[in-house]
Amino acid sequence: MADTGDQEPAADRATVEAVGKLTEALETTEIARGHLYAFHQLTGSADFKVEEAIELLARAGHQDLAARLERELLGRNVLPGRWTFQVVEEYDDAYYQPFRDLERETRELTGGQRHRYEAGLKRARRTPGEPGHEPTPDEPAIPPRSDRVSR
After folding, report:
1. Rounded distance, CA 35 to CA 135, Å?
2. SS3 labels along 62-131
3. Within a domain: 137
4. Where is this region: Disordered (predicted)?
5. Backbone angles phi, psi at 79, to 5 degrees
């Protein structure tokens, strides 16, 4: 639910701040999850490059080393019994999804609105009627009045 500039459901300032802090923590977790997916993609790409290196080493006459790399490194687990996709899936199931669910449930304290704290900041910091300060994308920009003092 985006900020429409309308009156929001009642919630005390401390609750809005607490819910905002939990939402901020979830956003940090989203970034961490993105890094975990990058780790997954990069590790997979590295494994395919190892495979290419094995082929090149074998063609260059280094069959023993190529065989050792193939046996010991190609397709190796990154953690005991786990490839990166399993790490990602376990993170999602054990941590990320419960975090999202609890954040969504906690947001009900503020009427379910996402980014309620930031919406309050926007209302407090915008200059009504000033271009670039519209409360919603649907409100047209109003040209600046000539009698305004410039900032």
Report:
1. 33
2. CHHHHHHHHHHCCCCCCECCECHHHHHHHHHHHHHHHHHHHHHHHHHHHCCCCCHHHHHHHHHHCCCCCC
3. no
4. 106-151
5. -135, 160
134 found inside a domain: no
**Which pLDDT score, from 0 to 100, does residue 142 have?**
62
Nearest alpha carbon to residue 104 among 19, 17, 31, 3: 19
**What global pTM score does this model have?**
0.75
Helices (H) and strands (E) in the chain, counts: 5, 0
Average pLDDT over residues 5-18: 76
Q: How many domains does the chain have?
A: 1
Residue 93 forms part of a structural domain: yes
Q: What is the pLDDT of residue 4?
A: 45
In a domain, residue 26? The reply is yes
**What are the tokens at 130?**
């000033």
Structural domain range at position 19? 13-125
